[in-house]
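pasting for ref
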Amino acid sequence: MNAPVDVAQHRAEANSKYGIIDCDIHPFPKPGALNKYLSARWRKHIAEYGQFTTGPYAARGTYPRFQPFLSRRDSFPPDGSPPGSDVDFLREQLLDAYNITYGVLEPLLGGNSSRNLDAAAALSSAMNDWQVAEFVDPEPRLRGSILIAADDPKAAVAEIEKRAADWRFCQIQLGSKTSEPIGRRRYWPIFEAALKHGYSIGLHVGGTQSSAPSAGGWPQFYAEEHHTLTHSMMNQTTSLILEGVFDVFPDLKIVMIEGGFGWVPQLGWRLDAHWSKMRSEVPDLKRKPSEYLKTNLWYATQPVEEPEQPDDLRQVFEWIGWDRVVYSSDYPHWDFDDPHTAWRFQMTEVEKRQVLHDNALAVYSFK
């Protein structure tokens, strides 16, 4: 049995040796914060028509209803602003408390999932301006994600080109719920632009909600809906591999964010078994599917799997590869993972540093 974790001791040890890189921090705008980054046309449009998203509800998260802002109850700033909206409080509660060297911002505001593609492009651009002006400029340990309207590849590439030389961005952000599987060729110009400018793709759970979140329809419980997010990561991984994305773009790096990682080994085994019997269907695939899982994909830790026997999780890390896993906290959400208590088995110092720091340097563009 593992000894109880001394949180204070582990935090002090980690903070004294190296800084932590957090690959999933969610900023949130205060009311009206985006207006100054939108043109008069789009301020007027949103004021009159609202944001026509792909979800079934206009003014809140999709069914079923969840905790306000999906956040920890202690993450509301002292002035009552939404969690993740105050950079000073974020600095105090996360960056300083955990010695975060770099923090990757992952805005989840729906702008890049609008049904109106022109609005999606305008909102994505406004959010890009907002996150760097109000978070990265006052706190350079943070880095932004380039939000794009993925269903409009021309506009998406234009937005990537616009931000390409800006050190304040470290990746391109896509959602795991897309109009079509992400490997389809309509999305390839985005991958090409990412490689051209040295960016990885951050594939974060969520995105467009053009159909029920599960193959069986609409769930009754939040626990069901929350779990199906993991299924979207498996679907997109399968699409990327079988559609040949990594053969056409062999240097493309994609980080799977907030979808867990316990599914990775079994997906590789199953795809390999199918491929061995039906490889004639995908004759251009150059390698076994499981091999791409270890060369082009990285996996953010949150939410960390919690097996009854903690050392079973070590075996999962071994199967995936210690060089494939990056730490993510999901701050300020309710299922935040503390980097010193998230996994309940003993890591070597080399393994710990790989997960908490070094692996992220291999996949993100920190300029």
